[in-house]
Design brief:
Layout: H1 14-22, H2 31-41, E1 46-49, E2 54-56, H3 57-74, E3 81-85, H4 91-102, E4 105-108, H5 115-125, E5 129-133, E6 135-136, E7 139-140, H6 141-151, E8 157-161, E9 174-175, E10 194-199, E11 209-213, H7 214-227, E12 235-238, H8 245-249, H9 252-258, E13 262-265, H10 271-281, E14 285-288, H11 290-301, E15 313-317, H12 323-333, E16 336-343, E17 346-350, H13 357-362, E18 366-367, E19 373-377, E20 390-395, H14 407-413, E21 420-428, E22 434-439, E23 443-446, E24 449-452, H15 453-461, E25 466-476, E26 480-489, H16 498-507, E27 518-521, H17 535-543
Parallel strand pairs: 1-13, 3-4, 3-5, 5-8, 8-9, 12-13, 12-14, 14-15, 15-16, 26-27
Antiparallel strand pairs: 1-2, 6-7, 10-11, 16-17, 17-18, 19-20, 20-21, 21-22, 23-24, 25-26
Helix pairs in contact: 2-3, 3-4, 5-6, 7-9, 11-12
Bound molecules: 5'-O-[(R)-(benzoyloxy)(hydroxy)phosphoryl]adenosine.
InterPro entries: AMP-bd_C, AMP-bd_C_sf, AMP-binding_CS, AMP-dep_synth/lig_dom, ATP-dep_AMP-bd_enzyme
Protein name: AMP-binding protein
Keywords: Ligase
């Protein structure tokens, strides 16, 4: 297929693109090509399993071609944007490969997204269709999609992945099963084309859509599969919502396919369900966010779990994993821990599987590619001395040069010469590993004294009555900000008081200006769609008058 650039996409400058080709980072292969090749090499190997399906590579390949043909008949075209909101189930893979083959762009929505997120996403992407499911975990996704369609003019089609043909659908919605046609030869996209749009984590206002090309994303998938040592015996359990960049490609489900291994899907990441899935599917690797890792570790430490002996690697990423938790993961689950620090915009760092334990528990790893460029700069953009905290900026063969169709966000988030400003405060150690200190905003500025949320959280986690803790700065007329500690007690019957917390911290020899001004006890932290703790929602809780003591 000839290549015209998607309007609103910022390509790499041609000299950089040429260099990434010369370096063999970008190989000219598309996702469709990879699936075709794997299906030809090992047609009967199992590509995808979930509770209801078990598809070989040949079957997945056939299904994606059949659905691409049907969607083309419906009028879905190259460059069309299609919202995909599906839980972790086999059809997710079928749908995205069908869209990849058509050159249509999945826009990856999370199952937790609702009207407030989906309307702006559909509007900003000018999507023509939504592909979703019926009722899942007692929520009616088809009805949600139908209401989005009524609010966004560009949306013409509503397609539902149903469990059986008896499922009641909204008027005009179509069952995706109607579009599994006899595969026809279709023109396939070019590797330089945008393959899909990802969503930027934690954005507010107009959603920032992240265009990733076949070339750049496949490189990150291939390098991830290499760094994580995947092979045809890999069984990757998609525990986090697969639409997110971490379970999708770090190395995630696409890494598993790259390596000719198996994707196992579980729609529920809690230990009760996920541990059974590990036993049933013989899972070898999975990825978790820290709050989920804590749940798994606590459950495993309590003993009497299903057989987890096939599990070799547990990745923790998406948010800072405190050392206290990191140390428990390996022993509790009988695995090698791998920390993953990444972003949907590109750059992904990993600890390596043979790193010494202090690197694995105390750092967020190093870039996966020797061609990633990193710099740590102060607020004026000057590089800070090695070993000093600063703002991380980066560019490389799989880090975008601009958000989709968003001039303002691009002006804020990229330097004039194309480096992406990650918004993360990091410390680059002499051995090349990064320690992530939080987001640029995760500091409380208390009357000019800066308090790192992460540092204070680490102290609180050492208190036996505290299960988890998050520090938030709240407005104060005198100091500018004061320090509020959200605390989840280890035992709901023992709620640590402000006095207890302050005494504990003072006794550790911590500066007096770092003492929390308030403690708020919560049973659970609010989460983002992918399970990270939502600082924004905690701030809102305070604004709404949460009880402080
Ligand atoms: C991943 O991607 P996003 O786009 O949801 O979020 C990216 C942001 C980073 O800029 C950083 O602030 C934070 O999430 N983050 C971490 C972290 N991993 C991500 N902060 C501290 N420690 C870590 N290990 O979250 C993502 C994408 C690909 C792989 C892994 C995570």
């Amino acid at each position: 297929m000839s290549s015209t650039v998607l309007p609103g996409f910022t390509p790499w400058p041609s000299a950089d693109a040429q260099r990434y080709r010369d370096l063999n980072c970008w190989t000219g292969e598309t996702f469709g090509d990879v699936l075709t090749a794997r299906a030809a090499a090992a047609p009967d190997a199992i590509a995808v399993v979930d509770d209801a399906n078990r598809w070989s590579y040949a079957e997945l390949d056939h299904r994606s071609r059949a659905l691409a043909t049907g969607l083309s008949r419906l009028g879905i075209r190259r460059h069309d944007r299609v919202l995909v909101q599906l839980p972790n189930r086999a059809e997710f893979v079928e749908v995205i490969f069908a869209l990849f083959r058509l050159g249509a762009l999945p826009v990856f929505c999370l199952p937790a997204h609702r009207q407030a997120e989906l309307v702006p996403i559909a509007t900003a992407s000018a999507a023509v269709a939504i592909i979703t499911c019926g009722t899942h975990q007692r929520f009616d996704y088809a009805a949600l999609a139908d209401s989005i369609r009524q609010q966004v003019d560009t949306l013409r089609h509503l397609l539902i992945v149903t469990d059986d043909s008896a499922t009641a659908l909204p008027d005009d919605a179509r069952d995706i099963a109607e579009f599994r046609d006899e595969p026809a030869d279709l023109p396939e996209p070019n590797a330089v084309d945008v393959a899909f749009l990802q969503l930027s984590g934690g954005s507010t206002g107009i959603p920032k859509l992240i265009p990733r090309t076949h070339d750049d994303y496949l490189y990150s998938v291939r390098r991830s599969a290499e760094v994580c040592e995947l092979g045809s015996d890999t069984v990757y359990l998609a525990t986090l919502p697969v639409a997110h960049n971490f379970p999708m490609s770090s190395p995630g489900i696409l890494g598993a396919l790259w390596a000719g291994g198996t994707i196992a899907m579980t729609p529920d990441p809690t230990p009760a369900t996920a541990f059974r899935a590990i036993e049933r599917f013989g899972v070898t690797i999975t990825g978790l966010v820290p709050p989920l890792a804590r749940l798994w570790v606590e459950r495993a430490e309590a003993g009497n779990t299903p057989d987890l002996s096939t599990l070799r690697v547990v990745q923790v990423g998406g948010a800072r994993c405190q050392e206290e938790l990191a140390r428990r993961v390996g022993p509790a689950l009988g695995v090698t821990l791998q920390q993953v620090f990444g972003m949907a915009e590109g750059l992904v760092c990993y600890t390596r599987l043979d790193d010494p334990i202090d690197v694995v528990v105390g750092t967020q790893g190093r870039p996966m590619s020797e061609h990633d460029r990193l710099a740590v700069v102060d607020d004026d953009g000057n590089e800070v001395p090695p070993g000093t905290d600063g703002n991380l900026i980066t560019h490389g063969p799989y880090t975008i040069r601009g958000y989709y169709d968003n001039v303002e966000a691009n002006a804020r988030s990229f330097t004039a010469d194309g480096w992406y400003r990650t918004g993360d405060i990091v410390n680059l150690r002499p051995d090349g590993n990064l320690v992530v200190g939080g987001r640029a905003g995760d500091w409380v500025n208390r009357g000019g004294e800066k308090v790192s949320a992460e540092e204070l959280e680490a102290h609180l986690l050492d208190h036996p009555d505290i299960r988890d803790a998050v520090i938030i700065g709240t407005p104060d007329p005198v100091l500018g900000q004061r320090i509020c500690a959200f605390v989840q007690p280890a035992d709901p019957a023992h709620r640590p008081s402000l006095m207890t917390v302050r005494t504990f911290i003072r006794e550790r020899g911590v500066a007096a200006w770092k003492m929390p001004d308030a403690v708020v006890i919560v049973d659970q932290f609010p989460e983002t769609g992918v399970g990270k703790t939502s600082r924004r929602d905690l701030r809102q809780l305070l604004a709404d008058g949460a009880h402080q003591n």
